[in-house]
Hints:
The complex is a heterotrimer.
Chain A: E1 4-15, E2 18-29, E3 33-37, H1 44-51, E4 59-65, E5 70-72, H2 78-85, E6 87-89, H3 102-109, H4 111-117, H5 122-125, H6 129-149, H7 164-176, E7 182-186, H8 194-210, E8 214-218, H9 222-228, E9 231-236, E10 239-244, H10 246-251, H11 253-258
Chain B: H1 3-28, E1 29-34, E2 37-42, H2 44-66, H3 73-102, H4 111-136, H5 145-162, H6 166-188, H7 193-213, H8 215-218, H9 248-251, H10 258-284, H11 287-297, H12 299-304, H13 309-335, H14 345-358, H15 363-379, H16 384-401, H17 416-421
Antiparallel strand pairs in B: 1-2
Chain C: H1 2-32, H2 39-59, H3 64-91, H4 100-121, E1 126-127, E2 135-138, E3 146-149, H5 150-172, H6 174-184, H7 186-191, H8 196-222, E4 224-225, H9 229-244, H10 249-269, H11 275-289
Antiparallel strand pairs in C: 1-4, 2-3
Amino acid sequence: MSKTLLKVENLTMKFGGLTAIDDLSFSANNNEITSIIGPNGAGKTTVFNCLTGFYKPTDGQMFLNREDKTVNLNKFSDYKIAHKAKVARTFQNIRLFPVMSVLENLLVAQHNELMVASGYSVFGILNLKRYKDKEKEAVEKAKYWLDIIGLTNRADDNAGDLPYGDQRKLEIVRAMCIKPKLLCLDEPAAGLNPKESSELNKLLKFIKNDKKTGILLIEHDMSVVMGISDHVVVLNYGKKIFQGNPTETRNSKEVIEAYLGVDE
Amino acid sequence: MSSELRTIIKDSLFTGLISLALFGPIVGLKTSSKGAGLFVTPSWTPVIFLVSACIIGRFLIGLNSIRKKEIGFISKITSRVSNYMDNKGKHFAITGVLFAVVFPFLPFTDRYIMDVSIMILTYIMLGWGLNIVVGLAGLLDLGYVAFYAVGAYSYALIATTFGWSFWVCLPLAGLFAAFFGILLGFPVLRLRGDYLAIVTLGFGEIIRIILINWYEVTNGPDGITGIPRPTFFGLPFKKIVEDGENSFHTFFNLEYSTMHRIIFLYYLILFLALITNYFTLKIRKLPVGRAWEALREDEIACKSLGVNPTNTKLTAFAIGATFGGFAGAFFATRQAFVSPESFTFIESAIIVAIVVLGGMGSQTGVVLATIFLIGITEMFRDLEQYRMIAFGGAMVLIMVFKPKGILANRKPTITLREHNSK
Amino acid sequence: MEYFIQQLINGITLGSIYGLIAIGYTMVYGIIGMINFAHGDIFMIGAFIALIAFILFGLTGVALPIILFLVLLIAMLFTACYGWTVEKLAYKPLRGSFRLAPLISALGMSIVLQNYVQVAQGARVKPLQPLISGGIEFFQNSEFVVTLSYLQIFIVILTIVLMTMFTFLITKTDLGRAQRACEQDRTMTALLGINVDRTISITFILGSSLASVAGMMFVLYYGVIDFYIGFLAGVKAFTAAVLGGIGSLPGAMLGGLLIGLIETMWSGYVSIEYKDVAAFSVLIITLIFFPTGFLGKPDIEKV
């Protein structure tokens, strides 16, 4: 199995006259955490939106290497990226289903397997055992993740009632419920206090090591970036200006020039 | 006089001035016909009444806010009802169903009350059907009456052409309606909320105009008559019986009464409505039902989890349409005649009002809202237009004060507690 | 050929009326992002007020041009009150609510207005004796005589005058600037000290005034109104607004003219019974395939 999980080649994204991403190439490896950093407006979320099928790139290719084959992400649009290509993401502004319970949020993530098991609802209506078993399995899986982030006792509460830090964690494990090969996290540490940030680090390391999922991370919080990244890609004005490991990045002249990093 | 009081008085007078401008011309200067032309009759009494009501009302609201008391008593009532429902919801529902079952045999239930009840149950079924589309999936469909019409007309055409029984024609009517639901749904589902609403409205109107004008098939404004009356599993409800034939009353050795057919119709619609309800309750707990609610909450998040938004919405549309079609089939057999007049945009608006008022997604809410809206206004039959003003006003008030509707505390479809206890 | 020119003239006249209503839709959409479902009924109320004013002035001996001018002002003034009230009661409390809330509220308001007029004025249609008659005839020697009526000239010229005044208002005055700022970013505009509530109210007032002018024209042109005209005209004008590009004022006028022409041509050449089906079909096709319209800006949702 090759080491490279994600290979982005010459990615360009233009909106009318504005070039948000300009000829960007980088790669992310399996079982590694790759952080994308850069000043605001550098194009980081745009990269995510291209990777996860929300924008159609103006130019360039994105390849995902899975055990069995290499998949061209350009060919998938919105929901298929999660369903078929197995790329999951979280959002800058948390997008949970606020009036649904924590457990329900995690079950929605397992929608496609459950749909098949319910015979596209037919078996479900008929209360067949086949579906009920699969549903039990899905709840167990949700329980598993809730235990890891310590929210088991809040499983039946509305997701919108959770404190901010817990909502972030929930969004991440919800994304994990689709069993992704690549997990894209958009500023997961935003708004977290130092204790919560270190819990986040632990969670991400667990995902990387135990779940063998590659993680792509957009972050401003340098304690998270430096603490857990294996690899860092630095963007500015839509272009890559540096890539390397965290120490190299911290000492790079270009990076320091581009922006004064926020040291926590 | 405190400055606050002065402000309130100023506001009230300003309100009075505006209301004078509003009601003066339209209410105060009534136009009526005289020969070929119109003349204007001043009619100041209602204007004075309305303007005073506005001034006083504004004054009271102003006073209320000085005392920092909220106009919360409506909220308090509805919260109490909501909480009661949360705790006793199931009991209430079961009692309600039992009551509905014995209803026709209660002493005060006469022909008129039965007719009203049948109408209420029809609207409840339509409300439950639309609840799937609007309440669960969050798709504002302003053309739901189109599926009602397709169901009614296809039932009418099939029954009058082929003479098949109700139980054969009913699923066919539903099928046609579902087909239209998919036809309508397919192009429109990627539209945003407000555009979706307008497009569905457009579809509803197109169906109605076609029904009026396509004389060859639908008989135009005259409608289709002679739809076979319902039978009790083959036994007709006829008064005069030929030799060798049986009618409902002869079979059961009862004295003939028109009430037999009415009661049968009542149980028929009750049965259909309960099926709709059962189906909805069940499907909410299935992945597709959860996906509907998730889509309603946040479509982008759904897509990021691999949920196919188009198929999911299309399913909601089709299923909602099917139940609308069933209701239409019932309507056709009950009336024995269908015409485009019964399928105007106002009907769609009424059903939407029922769902919104009841609390989007709440089954019991739909029941209460229907009984309230239809039942009470039936009592004031003569005040037909006032009823509509009240409808519209209720929609605005509910949105302003309690956008989630009267009974909108959502219960999760599955709990960890339940799961662990199994 | 002559028949075509007649349809053209009729279409442009009808289009002017739709365009004036469409401006109201597009302005409100531009500034608070909602479809004012009740706007068509505001047009209807404008028509009624104009009708009543015409009848009352008809009793006096005042000269026609003065009547027209006064009725115009009166209709604008009173209808503006309706527009202002509807906004304050049904939309303002819902700013920031979930997306469907203002739409449902608007729907409710539309039902209220229609039935309110029906109760107050009766359900029968209301006729008005023609006030402006006569016109210029062309092609008198051919089979089909094309008539350009004085009323049609009046409508088109009035529309042009109003559009010019309006464009000036939007582009050159402080109010217009405030309005455009609110369209872009309400919070920031408020932070800069502009009274956003007032700007929004004024938007509604302007839209309603223009709709009332359309109402007055409708009364004069068709000679008969009822409480239901708002629904149809509203849908068509909304289609016009989308077709021209929702949020764009010249777009609204352009869309109005297009819809007017489409409706007239369809009635003239294909079928008059199904002309409303044509209108609704254009609506559906536009919303599905062409939602940004001709002059509109594409709406990209931020992820």
